Amino acid sequence: MIKDTQARNIKPSDKAIPHGGVIGLALHPSKTKGQGKWVLRYVSPVTKKRRNAGLGSYPTVSIADVTKIALSMRGQIEQGFDPLEEKAKTQELQKIPTFEAAAGMLHAELLPSWKNIKHGQQWINTLEQYIFPYIGSLTLDSIEPRHIADALRPIWLDKQETAQRTKRRIHAVMAWGWAHGFCNSNPVDVVEHLLPKQTGKVIRTEHHPAMAWQEIPKFVQKHLTVNDKSNVTRSILEFLILTACRSGEARGAQWSEIDWEKKIWSIPAERMKMKSAHRVPLSDRALEILHNQLGLHETLIFPSPRGQKELSDMALTSFLRKVNAPSTTEGRVATAHGFRSSFRDWCSENGYARDLAERALAHTVQNQVEAAYHRTDLLEKRRPMMQSWSDFVCGIPAPDKNTHIDQKVSFLSNLENK
Description:
It comes from Paenalcaligenes hermetiae. By secondary structure, this protein is α+β, with helices and mostly antiparallel strands.
């Protein structure tokens, strides 16, 4: 095996000195005495061609170090791999991506975690619209706070909410890059120091356009009150209004969740936004809608007309746009989610306790001390409230107690005779 004394005395005019301990490894002289270049010559097991792999310069790479490197490469060759090709693949994998490429990779990783595909698409759309034109082609390690500030500046004051959402998404991409070793810090952390102060509240809650609760009976009677199995969109929308549930909860409703005897719809935790099981007392009209849906699908209560799958959220949105459902937001039609807000306003205007209304909406109790004492969902206390809401939505005048009982008896008799 080559000795240090031989390597230290190598001259430009000398021939390459074989390593002696690794086949094909030799120290080739450089232009300066005592310096050389380690080269491993081998036949590629892939291409069957002779190749030269440079392993560094001596004395920077010592004899002991080059021995380890060369032996490792010889091991790859024996296993049928070409060391230079494997190195090229590794370098390609470690290549620092551009911001646009990194955003695409992160988006693909996050997409399965979004329940709503539309939200996942909006996540990448804002970056494509506002950010990629400015920094999309820059590698993560070259992006500085000034680059991000320049990208956000056009929307920073005019579209403050959009700007803040976009900033958070940029931060997520850069954090992903930082975690993978593509950059040494997250430049988004200091970007606001380069931008003017936003006016008013920086982040405001963007409410879903809602219909004024006083308008709902007229809207329901004109567009929704049907007993036609083929009109699934109208049926589910009326059911959604009557139960004050979320769109996804109604679209995924299953027959196994309905207790006909107790008149309860029990939604399992895995289908709830807050991952906590929720019970809904069913009003007379809600039960009638369910009865009309019998026979459409073995599992789903409101299946899509085509494919017998879960109805899409867009079906409800499209219907509300088609009928131009009025809302309290100028220039916007009411949304399916907005009816929850309408219900909440109706509860307040009609003197129902906050506790009952919040439980009907399956909202969590924010105050931890208060939450500790809330060990019941107040189901039976909510039942008359939901029936009153149903009567209001269906345009039934508030009756006296006896009349209301007579109506219930009449409804149940008709249901049994169907």
